[in-house]
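Dear support,

I submitted the protein below through the web form. The confirmation email said the job was done, but the results page showed an empty box. After a refresh the structure appeared. I'm attaching both so you can tell me whether what I see now is the final result or a partial one.
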Amino acid sequence: MAARARLDEAQRIERNEGRAWPAQRLLWGVEAAQWLARMGHDHAGALRLGRRLLALDRERGSQASIATGNLIDAELAAGDAAAAAQLGAGLVESLVGTRHEYNLAFARINLLAALLAQDDAARARPVAQAAWAKAADFDLQHGAAAYLALLCALQARPRAACRLAGYSQALYTARGEAREQNETAATLRALALARQALDAATLARLQAEGAALRDADVPAVAFADADDSGC
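What the results page shows now:
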C-alpha cells in the first residue's frame, strides 16, 4: 500500500544518510513504522519498534508518556501483561499531580487493561474509577468502557458486563472508529465470560440496553457491588 511504500523509502534514506541524524528526526520514521506494525498485528515488530521509539523520545528530552503508552499497548498485545502493568504503574505515578491530564487519562486506561489481563480485578477497580472520571474530558469513553465491561465480568457481574460492552460498541459505531486489538480482546473476553452465565437472548437484550446508556449512567453500572437480578 502507499503508506508502506513511503515508509520503505524513508527507511532506505535513513539507512543511507541517517547515521548522524538526531533523535528528533529519527523518531518520526520509527513512529510510523510502529503504527503500521500495530495495524498489521505484527506484535513482535510493534514491540521492537515501541522500545526503539521510547529510547529515541527520551534521548530527545521528552517526557515520553505517549511513547510509553504505546509500548504498554505493544507489551499487552504481545502477551506480556506483567511488563505492561509495570510500565503502566510507573507511568501513572510519574503523571499524577502534573499538568499532563490527557496523558494521565490514557496511562490509567493502559494500566487498567494490563491489570485486567492478569485477572487482578481488586487492583483494577480503583484504577478504573479514576480512568472513567476523566474519560469524557478526552472522548475516551468507548475505549475505557471496553475495560469496564471486562472488570464487571471478572467480578462475576455478567449483566453489567454485557451492558457496558453494548455501550462501548455503540460509541465505536457512532464515532466511526475501529477498535484496536486490546480493546477488542477485552470486549470479546467480557462477553465470553458473560456467556457462561447468560443465554444468547439475554446477552443480546442486555447489550441493546447498554447501547442506550448515557455517560452519566455508566458509574452505577460499572461500580456496583453486585449484579442486578434482571429477568
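Response: this is the final, complete result; the empty box was a page-load delay. Residues 139-231 form one domain.
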